[in-house]
Amino acid sequence: MTRKEDLAANLAAVRERIAKACAAAGRSTDEVTVVAVTKTFPASDVRLLAELGITDVAENRDQEAAAKVGECRDLGLTWHFVGQLQTNKVRSVVSYADVVHSVDRKRLVTALSREAVHAERSLSCLIQVALDDAEGRGGVRPAGLPALADALVAADGLELGGVMAVAPLGADPAPAFARLAEIAASLRSVHPAAKMVSAGMSGDMEQAIACGATHVRVGTALLGGRRAIVR
Ligand SMILES: *Cc1c(COP(=O)(O)O)cnc(C)c1O
Fold first, then answer.
1. CATH number for 58
2. I want to staple 21 with a disulfide (CB 3.0 to 4.6 A). Which of 5, 116, 209, 222 is the partner?
3. How far is the CA of 118 from the centre of ligand 1 (A)?
4. Residue 162 has what pLDDT?
């Protein structure tokens, strides 16, 4: 099999899983966007995925993302940044990202806004919500979300797109995604335009779709296993 055939088969399997999950939830497949998480994989894979109909691509490290975006400019893709974001990387990320999924603190809102205005870009921002007490995976506690949402809405150059979460490690994802659905609904009651719910990865996209995910972030199921990266 060529790499393209490989990716095509993986994509077909992912689309089939999404179709089944949508049918079970009484949702239309149009409501769910596949965001291909291409971290650790080459720009050539991004190109093949684009040929296969992928429109949305995500990366989690600025250095790798910036290089890959540079090689794929002609493809007209929507680029998502899904990794933890340090303020010193904000200028670079704003130069290529269309959507940032990992906004979890006020300082980041301030920095993103400043750079978006400077670059004359409009950036869609998702607030990453921490669904468990695990440290180090990013995300604002649910109690802190309303204030962060207000700050985002007030910030020039930024739009509040919705929420993002990663299910707790080693636990049933369903209760966490149900909690996220409640959080997303209460956010929409104040900010109706914040419709995006970024949840679900290769291992738990069904549970996320059952709970209203609009964007599933799929790496392994599309591209195969990643080698451990030494930082
Ligand atoms: C790597 C990554 C994914 C994709 O994970 P898979 O299990 O490989 O599908 C999704 N979201 C984030 C934030 C990631 O860093």
1. 3.20.20.10
2. 209
3. 30
4. 98
